[in-house]
């Protein structure tokens, strides 16, 4: 409860950004030529965005937006999503260059940076809005997401993964002050489960030919990140 209130009230006191309407961009959002979208959820979207931006800067990540997806209401607000009644997840939508980083690498990275075994929870953040999920944008993405999930479940997370794999739904950008939140607020709240784990890919994975961007080096933890062998 304390984590929830610290996150919620932080933005309702003295912020000039309060009241910004979230800009909707549904699952048919136009994407620049030769790029693709990846949409994932892994708890508080501030930390998820921050770690993806940090590790894939200049490595194929073109843009990353935090927002809401997977719910029933149009144009949801942060306060309503935090209340748990809209069905939306706090999520991250990545625009990436597949010639520089593969979708597979981005999904492998997802399983390194959060705990996918705690249903509807990350650290002290509890509720369906904090669920672990992959929202695929094509059948090829669905196949890759399922393959990576099977690998991570069997080799990294002890067959306890609760991540949902589901087709992409309407996307709504979160309010302006959420975008790049931890860049603008270095001392802001960070979920303790959001750090890069040094898992190793199993020998012979994946079965099909993998691109050079799918190799472990593409997602190795940087020296200044906390590390854990789990």
Q: Please, could you describe this protein's structure?
A:
With 230 residues, this protein is α+β, with helices and mostly antiparallel strands. It contains six helices and eight strands, in the order αβαβαβαβββαββα. The model is unreliable at 1-6, 8-28 and 211-230 (pLDDT under 50). A hairpin with a 2-residue loop joins strand 4 and strand 5. Helix 4 runs parallel beside helix 5. The two termini are 27 Å apart. The strands form two sheets. The protein has a six-stranded mixed beta sheet with strand order 7-6-1-3-2-8. A two-stranded antiparallel ribbon has the order 4-5. It has helices at residues 2-9, 45-56, 78-82, 103-113, 139-155, 181-184; strands at residues 36-42, 61-69, 89-96, 121-122, 125-126, 132-136, 164-167, 171-173. It has one domain: Peptide Methionine Sulfoxide Reductase, Chain A (2-Layer Sandwich). Keywords: Oxidoreductase. One of its GO terms (molecular function) is peptide-methionine (S)-S-oxide reductase activity. This is peptide-methionine (S)-S-oxide reductase. Residues 206-230 are annotated as: Disordered. It comes from Orbilia blumenaviensis.
């Amino acid at each position: 409860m304390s984590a929830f209130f610290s996150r919620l009230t932080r933005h309702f006191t003295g912020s000039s950004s309060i009241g910004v309407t979230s800009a909707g961009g549904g699952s048919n959002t136009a994407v620049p030529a030769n790029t693709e979208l990846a949409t994932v959820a892994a708890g508080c979207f501030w930390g998820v965005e921050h770690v993806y931006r940090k590790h894939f800067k200049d490595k194929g990540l073109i843009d990353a937006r935090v927002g809401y997806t997977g719910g029933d209401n149009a144009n949801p607000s942060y306060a309503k999503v935090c209340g748990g009644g809209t069905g939306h997840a706090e999520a991250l939508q990545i625009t990436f260059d597949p010639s520089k980083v593969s979708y597979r690498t981005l999904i492998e990275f997802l399983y390194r940076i959060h705990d996918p075994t705690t249903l509807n929870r990350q650290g002290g953040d509890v509720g369906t809005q904090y669920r672990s999920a992959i929202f695929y944008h094509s059948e090829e993405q669905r196949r890759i997401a399922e393959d990576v999930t099977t690998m991570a479940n069997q080799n990294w997370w002890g067959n306890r993964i609760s991540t949902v794999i589901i087709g992409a739904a309407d996307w709504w950008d979160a309010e302006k002050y959420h975008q790049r939140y931890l860049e603008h607020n270095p001392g802001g709240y960070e979920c303790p489960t959001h750090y890069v784990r040094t898992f190793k890919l199993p020998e012979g994975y994946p079965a099909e030919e993998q691109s050079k961007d799918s190799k472990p080096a593409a997602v190795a933890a940087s020296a200044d990140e906390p590390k854990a062998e789990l």
